Amino acid sequence: MNRRQMLRAALAPAVVLGVGTGCSEPQPAPGSVDVADPGSLAATPPSASPTSSLPAGPLTGAPVGTPAAATRQAVAVPMRVSPATTPAGLDAADLVYAEFAESDTLHLTAVFHSRDASKIGPVTEIRPVDIRSVSVLRPFVGYDGGPTGFLTQFESSDLDGVTPDDDSKVFSGDYTSTAALLKAAPKGGQPPTPALDHATDGDALAARDLAPATELTITVSGGPPMVWRYDQPKARWVGKVGTATVTAASVIVLTMEYRTLEVRKPSFRSLPSANVFGEGAVVAVSGPTSAKGRWRKPGLGMVCTLADTGGDLLHPQPGNAWVIYAPTTAKVTVK
């Protein structure tokens, strides 16, 4: 049974439930979106593209850059981006998770598997959102330390990683690369679990309530809106992060509660934190179309399932994807 069959078998019609506020792994309510065991999902890799002799990557559903990339471990890098930052490496990432952080910044978790990047950064501290987003993918993580409590969470997650204090050769200032991270990673790392159910054989994004889309805007209180526009000739969604232009095959917006974390060590500060465990509304754009539905992620070791308004899986187009964690107070519009 392939990944799509596993997920379809696990899905029941979605119902509107409140987004979870804790870090526990709640049992699904009757009729809610269910999630399959990621260990089963990883057993069958995506089929190869009919136009390429290279296999499809588990995180993109598109051909990998080299044959060796298909079976290697993913790497992940947290990045902090302000409106004045020029981030590096994002267009080589298979997945990018974006959290709205303090002072008009974004905290990004960039996951690399199918392609290499010679420069990634600026690398920043580890945060709970990084751990909760990527633990199921089993990447090797390059990060720049973090508050004591966050480091404890990382150590308890079974993820491996490296900081500049551990091995300065992996980093060049605030930057690193996929080659340096993979060289530093322990031997025996496994390729990631598929995170999305990519379209095949002309699948539509959703089975119902599909709508045309040319622009996606996420507006958060106190900060500039994040705007993505569809480039029809290139079949790509184009946005701006810091001063850099980035592109994606799909952009997926998950609405969820944010909490304020009071960090005390090594210094006191307050940080916004997206609660990625639970269930909530999803708005996705992929190709020239958009769809709405529900997302559900019960806990650390489970994939985040995306379903349309009738409970069927969403099928984003093969390629890289951005997953935006939007606060419940945000306004998400599609034109």
TrEMBL record:
Residues 38-66 have a biased composition (Low complexity). InterPro entries: DUF3048_N (IPR021416), YerB-like_sf (IPR023158). Residues 59-168 form the DUF3048 domain. Residues 24-66 are annotated as: Disordered. Signal peptide: none annotated. PROSITE patterns: PROKAR_LIPOPROTEIN (PS51257). This is DUF3048 domain-containing protein. It comes from Micromonospora robiginosa.
